[in-house]
Amino acid sequence: MAQAAIELTGINKSFGAVRANRDINLEIARGTIHGIVGENGAGKSTLMSILYGFYQADSGEIRVGGKPASIKTPNDAIALGIGMVHQHFMLVDNFSVLENIILGAETDALLKSSIAKARSELDRLEREYGLEVDPDAIIEELPVGLQQRVEILKALYRGAEILILDEPTGVLTPAEADHLFRILRQLKEQGKTVVLITHKLREIMAITDTVSVMRQGTMVATRETRKTTVEELAELMVGRRVLLRVEKGDAEAGAVKLAVKNLTVRDSRGVTMVDDVSFDLRAGEIVGIAGVAGNGQSELLEAISGIRHAVSGSVMLEGKPIDLTGKADPGELRDRGLAHVPEDRHHVGLVLAFEENENSILGYHDDPRYLRGPFLNIDAIMADAKDKIEKYDIRPGNPRLKTANFSGGNQQKIVLAREIEQDPGVLIVGQPTRGVDVGAIEFIHKRLIAMRDQGKAVLVVSVELDEIRSLSDRILVMFAGRIVGERGPEATEGELGLLMAGVEHQEAAQ
Amino acid sequence: MSTPYAKLPAWADYGLIPLINLSVAFIVAGFVVMLVGENPFRAAVILVEGAFGKGTGIAFTLFYATTFIFTGLSVAVAAHCGLFNIGTEGQAYIAGLGIAIVCLSFDSTLPWWLTFPLAIVASALVGALWALIPAYLQAKRGSHIVITTIMFNFIAASIMVYLLVGPLKPAGSQAPQTRNFLAGAELPKLNWIIELFGAKIRSAPLNICFLLALAMAFLVWLLIWRTRLGYEMRTYGHSPKAARYAGISETRIIITAMMISGALAGMMALNPVMGDQHNVAIDFVSGAGFVGIAVALMGRLHPVGIVLAAILFGMLYQGGAELAFEMPAISRDMIVIIQGLVILFAGALEHMFRPYIQALFASFSPKSVGMQAVNGKGA
Ligand SMILES: Nc1ncnc2c1ncn2[C@@H]1O[C@H](COP(=O)(O)OP(=O)(O)OP(=O)(O)O)[C@@H](O)[C@H]1O
Ligand SMILES: [Mg+2]
Predict the structure, then answer these.
(1) Interchain contact, A374 vs B228, CB within 8 Å
(2) Secondary structure class of A96 (helix, strand, coil)
(3) pTM (2 decimals)?
(4) What is the reported pLDDT for A504?
């Protein structure tokens, strides 16, 4: 066996009563790609944060390249050649791409020369790995997909020997993920070591050499990827058999609930993001919008939910128009039966500094159920939060815990529980299962399908083709702001992939 | 990733860390005292005795604390909504005008217990209106509230100077202040409370505003953590995007929060004006608005913390005055330096020692660091 790049022995880490890591042993060989899988809250991010110096283990030993290492801060980790791409982006929103990349790695006293050097280095990295981003774009104006690229570039720029990626493909399409994997393989060929945390077992099978499974804070198994299967991994993770594709009957589409006509949306720089989009969403059906991240899906969702200005077109909710000036009151739309699970749960869908129960009423905080006159009805809010925790198996089951301390998948469940439990007539969902484990995906999909079967209209935007295909009754494909095709659920991945890449569209235009 | 460092237990967070910050501030202040050739230990004794040693000292300490509770609450309310209100000073100052109008109109006809509620309303209203303009400019025009509130401090000061040397000054008087109020605008003292405990009080300005301040602290707690409005303010304060998503109007929440903040700032003026001086004089706020920023920070934006921090600053003011009196080498300005050091260590550098203490805790007892989970069901 090749020399170990990283050896972890007997790692323990508790947060109060939560034992996030117990007695973890792990050895990762140099020049390999090692996958780590496990349910939400299994302790994957915690383990990697210990390796990267964000947390310190309560006990245990870390060896890097055979030598005992004391990693107290991320700077120690970087000095040891460990780089990390986080599950949640760590970028300065109002800085440019270039500024973010050199942040903390400035080489000269004068920023200007650092920037010039960084620009050429970045140029090289971008060309070498095909990670194209406009170095002068401002982060907050980039779609999440591109922000992700910046994170990856940032780690590469610091010359990491060991690269940890915590759910890097959560926001990427299969094509983009393939692209990332090409980069990772290239890194591996250069002798670098990659640790990949993901919930997508397909990716594990496609790219890793070895894979470890975590469950409830412990390391339950390590396998050679060649010798295992998706089913085995899923079962190891969850401790029971998992339906990887939820069964559903045929849709019985009814009346039109949401009618979008000739909708056009521009972003703050005047670029057309949604271009003359029209479609209907009917009661009792799930419509999926597929597309590569950044093709206008986010803007479409925001316009429909009344938080983004549309330059022209109309959206009718149950026959009545939605105010598209960007000044619509989302509260009023909620009253009219429109619920929205936003793509960006960290900045939009949740207030991370709030307790879980406070987030469970966000947007519904003026519902009389949660109020006693001008006062919050704390008892009702807590009871309601506990109820949802129970129903959606949100862990840890403590409504007083700060939301930032829940794992990514559980945070997503908090948002979904809040929106679905309001029993809306129309539910629009952005990236329903981003960062969510296989067991929870099964659960969320079942919920969405149950809503459909109750005659609710569901619009799902996802960059996961698998998800779109298994959920949707109709699939719309978006490319460059337009809807370039509609397909049934039987559409093949290849067919959709071509549409998403705009191939058919361009041919038609010629 | 939330915080790179795990959370401390509450007692360390709210007790130990402020204590360490304070101790460091006093140690550094001690060196300053040594530098001017005085004994720092004796200075400390004089300071504490001056503030708490005698009944009169306690009454003065609480009188100053009253002022700082109002300004601290004012800063905190805005801060919970993500707004940095530096205009507390000016809002309090201009509120003196509202109080002057009420008191000068009614002090000969109404008893204090009727004048007082009117003056409360007038001070809160004027303070709120003075905060309204910067709030409106922030909400509608995006003019940064820090800049506009600073400018409004200057405007308030200019207006008050104009009024106090002109229209509001009694004819023939040399002093830039209104005439003295009559008994109908004098607030009852609270010195008897301290005397209940057996302490003797000569004359001290502690008055009923102290109770009003405590009541306001409770109301602010209710507002922030128990009302829908407070929930909306906190949502906006943490994440404007989430507030937008939740249907919280940016304009409405900014204006409301700033007006409440301004009202609290305005009520501060009641304490010196009606409780002590019985007139509105030039510069009667004298920096209390800015101390409010330190008090709010040190009190971690929580009313209980703010009351405690306000008492601490009250002690520094009162004990400092005694110190300047007892030790000639220590001038008034030295006291300001000591106050500045406390502000620096306890307010501005609040987080300086935190990482070390967290590391220390983590190495002694890892389990103590972290959030409490109610049931251990979570993995
Ligand atoms: N700072 C913290 N304070 C308290 N509890 C925490 C903290 N960080 C993590 N936890 C808890 O530790 C457990 C492990 O969390 P972790 O983020 O490592 O899970 P994960 O495997 O990465 O999950 P996911 O797949 O959802 O990202 C969870 O129960 C989580 O709630
Ligand atoms: Mg994680």
Answers:
(1) yes
(2) strand
(3) 0.84
(4) 60
Q: B228 and A365: CB-CB below 8 Å?
A: yes
Question: With contacts defined as CB-CB under 8 Å, which chain A residues touch B359?
Answer: 56
Q: Do A363 and B245 touch (CB under 8 A)?
A: yes
> What is the domain count for chain B?
2
Q: What ipTM is given for this predicted complex?
A: 0.84
Residues of chain B with pLDDT under 50: 1-6, 366-379
Q: Are strands A286-290 and A474-479 parallel, antiparallel or unpaired?
A: parallel
Query: Do B344 and B298 reside in the same domain of the chain?
Result: no
The residues spanned by each domain of chain A are: 4-238, 256-508
CATH architecture of the domain with range A4-238: 3-Layer(aba) Sandwich (3.40)
- pLDDT attached to residue A400: 95
Judged against a pLDDT cut of 70, whether residue A314 lies above it is answered with yes
Nearest CA to ligand 1 atom 10: A405
CB contact under 8 Å between B242 and A58, yes or no, is no
**CATH code linked to domain A256-508:** 3.40.50.300
Given this model, what pLDDT does residue A285 score? 95
Contacts of B245 in chain A (CB under 8 A): 305, 307, 330, 340, 342, 348-349, 362-363
Q: Is the pLDDT of residue A510 over 70?
A: no
Q: Find the CB nearest A17 among B1, B234, B373.
A: B373
The listed range with the strongest mean pLDDT (A140-144, A149-153, B24-28, B86-90) is B86-90
CATH number of the domain enclosing B182: 1.10.3470
Same domain, B30 and B175: no
In a domain, B273, yes or no: yes
Q: Which residue of B has its CA nearest to A56?
A: B362
Q: Are residues B301 and B225 in the same domain?
A: yes
Q: Nearest residue on chain B to A335, judged by CA atoms?
A: B247
Considering the domain architecture, whether residues B13 and B112 belong to the same structural domain is answered as no
* A348: nearest CB among B242, B359, B377: B242
d(CA B239, CA B237): 6
How would residue A287 be classed by pLDDT, with cut points 50, 70 and 90? Answer: very high
Residue B355 touches partner A, C-beta closer than 8 Å? no
By DSSP bridging, strand A59-64 and strand A67-68 are antiparallel
Residue range of the domain that includes B31: 8-38+335-361
Among A204, A205, A212, A202, smallest CA distance to A237 is for A212
* Ligand of minimum distance to the alpha carbon of A409: 1
Q: Determine contact: B366 vs chain A, CB below 8 A.
A: yes
Do B195 and B236 belong to one domain?
A: yes
Token pair of A165 as six digits: 């990626």
Q: Check: CB of residue B270 under 8 Å from CB of residue B99.
A: yes
Q: Are residues B18 and B153 in the same domain?
A: no
Closest C-alpha to ligand 1, atom 9: A405
Q: Which own/partner contact pairs does A227-233 have at CB distance under 8 Å and 24+ positions apart? A: A230/A201, A230/A202, A230/A205, A233/A37, A233/A201, A233/A204
Residues B251 and B131 in one domain: yes
- Within this chain, domains A4-238 and A256-508 share the same CATH topology: yes
B 288-307 near A (Cβ less than 8 A) = none
Can you name the residues that pair with A375 across neighbouring β-strands?
A372, B227
User: What is d(CA B222, CA B260) in angstroms, rounded to the nearest whole number?
Assistant: 13
**Banded model confidence at residue A352, pLDDT cuts 50, 70, 90:** very high
pLDDT of A2 over the 60 cut: no
Distance separating alpha carbons of residues A217 and A44, to the nearest angstrom:
8
Task: Please say whether the beta carbons of A442 and A471 come within 8 A.
Answer: no
Alpha carbons B107 and B119: distance in angstroms, whole number: 11
| Closest C-alpha to ligand 1, atom 31 | A406
Chain A interface includes B219 (CB < 8 A): no
Residue B1 beta carbon below 6 angstroms from any ligand 1 atom: no
CB-based contact B375 A402, cutoff 8 Å:
no
Whether B44 is in a domain gets the answer no
* A18 contacts B371? CB cut-off 8 A: yes
Cα(A196) to centroid of ligand 2, in Å? 11
Q: What is the mean pLDDT of chain A?
A: 88
